[in-house]
Task: structure prediction
Amino acid sequence: MEDRNTLVTSGRFQPATALVRALDAVGARVDVADSYALSPALHSNRAERTHHVAPAAEEPLRFVDDVRAIVREREIDLIAPSFEEGFYLARYASALGAPLLAPSFATAAALHDKARFVELCARLD
Result:
């Protein structure tokens, strides 16, 4: 991860703050993006730059556009979603301009849907 430009999204959840600290500890340059200005990770002294983005659930296409703009501007090498915004990013992963540290949209949807997850478990025995 050293010298990797990483974008952590959804900085309002404590795992995001831990992720920012861990990435910084291994030498990554870390940016954080969220739609909520009081998100803890946006105020981490381990984040090099922070970004205000559209809310993923309310404005998914604008959110994806905002993330894509950050990727281009900051030369991001890896996007690390830390909460449900990962679904929106996975859905539009091919348009982001950087790899996403998350499963494909189809995999995430299958694991998130309780009925489909139970069916998967049954198939796997």
